[in-house]
Write a structure and sequence with these properties.
single chain, Hypothetical Protein Pfu-838710-001, eight-stranded antiparallel β-barrel, alpha+beta, 3 domains
Length: 492
């Protein structure tokens, strides 16, 4: 069984409104007491699997779960187990009850190297949840909407649970997304791909937020229009949702913010460069994504300036206190949680799960579209790259943006062309990307220090140091861009 579910974290002040909305139909209340098991060294978690024994009212249910083909899909298998003869005692967990199922196979793989007579599973954490749920008809589909409130406990520590889930029971995922979008607009909340199991593992192991997720490859079989368009969106949104979930949970880690920005840029590249293969978008679809990108950019740039100040002091410059919001106020957590961007994210998910408008585009035609766009970007980058030093600042910045789009489009194209040629091309672009990235960062910082010097004379050291490096940095950019003239286009 594959489960499709969207989960939203809720601020407590939104609960009363959601309760009223749920109670407009027939609801069911449940007390869910669950115990989660793993090996002492976390073998199941390492394989993306969970094993749960849960008391649902008076019945006990053992459930195995494992990662599906996306962050919103999970493999799941449930088995009802008899209640123990002794009241107040939970049944013993036995993962073999799931043998032969997709989720059970993942658990078996995680445990395969252990002796058969070893009892490796131990209680890692448990949850106590009050659930109120209601089944709602959405278009031609049925969706179970459940409000969960309670806590997770591990090692004497507790973390609160306050979330609403939309689980597709029958029908189309796009209908569940549309329903969740309406509720999110009315009641707030933010999408999270961090499961209760992941929260429990982190609490039990005293872990910081999860690692940042980098961009993933496009599925090799997705080469025709409809499949390819969905695969590109899927790869972009997986990266975006994973990192946005961590940021919305409170992480302002530089790598989470960076990888979220990369995911947004990849998505915007796909929508801009491949409109024939993407879903029909609203005229203003880009506005919330651009707003988020700039908000994250201010946070990232402030971090860069703080690091640069340490370099300046190491080079003999005066000590200078740089405010966290020196380049303008930024709040990545609030930006990701904002209703405008959450709605834009759900709209994009709805498009991904909706009808494939590019279904008539065969693999050959998709390849031709990719080749045309790649050729145009490559031509523009090489043309301006030959005279990069003489270009005005806006044109220099445009070269950098086009170079990034060229790289992302190249990565999307991997399975339509010779993969070794594609890999070599991407590697050849990296020196220019690095040079332009460094140049852009120092130009931005130079403007900041020059502006700051009007109020703080000690900032003149930084302004002068950066100004002295600008010409050499620009020349380095031009050198790496000129080297692209010898690069053989893999699409020809």
């Amino acid at each position: 069984m594959t489960e499709f579910e969207l989960k939203f974290q809720l601020p407590p002040e939104r609960v009363d409104g959601i309760l009223r909305a749920l109670q407009r139909g027939k609801t069911v209340r449940q007390l869910l007491q669950a115990r989660y098991f793993d090996t002492a060294d976390g073998a199941l978690a390492a394989h993306g699997a969970t094993l749960r024994m849960r008391k649902e009212g008076r019945r006990w249910v053992q459930t195995a779960k494992a990662a599906g083909d996306s962050a919103l899909h999970r493999l799941e298998h449930e088995v009802a187990v008899p209640a123990p003869a002794t009241a107040g005692v939970a049944p013993a967990v036995d993962w073999r009850l799931h043998a032969g199922t997709p989720a059970g196979e993942v658990i078996a793989q995680a445990l395969w190297a252990r002796p058969p007579d070893e009892a490796p599973l131990v209680l890692v954490y448990q949850t106590h949840v009050q659930r109120i749920k209601r089944v709602i008809r959405s278009q031609g589909s049925t969706v179970e909407v459940a409000l969960d409130r309670g806590w997770i406990e591990a090692g004497g520590e507790r973390a609160d649970i306050c979330e609403i889930e939309f689980e597709l029971k029958t029908g189309e995922a796009s209908d569940a997304i549309a329903l969740a979008r309406r509720w999110c607009a009315a009641h707030g909340g933010w999408l999270s791909t961090i499961s209760k199991a992941e929260q429990g593992q982190r609490l039990a192991r005293r872990q910081a937020p999860g690692p940042a997720l980098q961009g993933r490859d496009i599925a090799s079989h997705a080469r025709a229009g409809g499949e390819f368009g969905r695969a590109v969106l899927h790869a972009c949104l997986e990266q975006i949702m994973a990192n946005a979930s961590e940021v919305a949970a409170g992480s302002t880690d530089a790598e989470h913010v960076h990888q979220l920005r990369v995911g947004v840029r990849r998505l915007r590249t796909a929508m801009r460069e491949l409109p024939q293969l993407m879903p029909p978008a609203d005229v203003d679809w880009a506005a919330p994504w651009v707003q988020l990108f700039h908000e994250l950019g201010r946070h990232r740039d402030s971090g860069f300036v703080a690091q640069l100040q340490a370099r300046l002091e190491a080079a003999g410059g005066p000590a200078l206190q740089i405010a966290p919001d020196a380049l303008g106020p930024s709040d990545p957590v609030a930006a990701v949680r904002s209703p405008g961007w959450q709605d834009a994210l759900l709209a994009m998910l709805g498009w991904m799960h909706g009808p494939a408008d590019a279904a008539g585009f065969g693999a050959k035609r998709v390849k031709a579209i990719l080749a045309k766009r790649l050729g145009k970007l490559f031509k523009d980058v090489r043309k301006d790259g030959r005279h990069f030093v003489q270009l005005p600042a806006p044109r220099q910045h445009r070269v950098r943006k086009r170079l990034k789009r060229l790289r992302y489009l190249t990565e999307f194209s991997r399975h339509h062309f010779d993969q070794d040629d594609v890999k070599s091309f991407v590697e050849a672009l990296k020196p220019a990307q690095d040079a332009l990235g460094n140049y852009n960062d120092e130009v931005l910082a130079g403007g900041f220090y020059a502006g700051l010097a009007a109020q703080e004379p000690r900032a003149w050291f930084g302004a002068g140091w950066l100004a002295a490096r600008r010409a050499a940095n620009a020349a380095a950019c031009e050198d790496t861009l000129r080297a692209l003239a010898d690069l053989r286009p893999f699409w020809k």
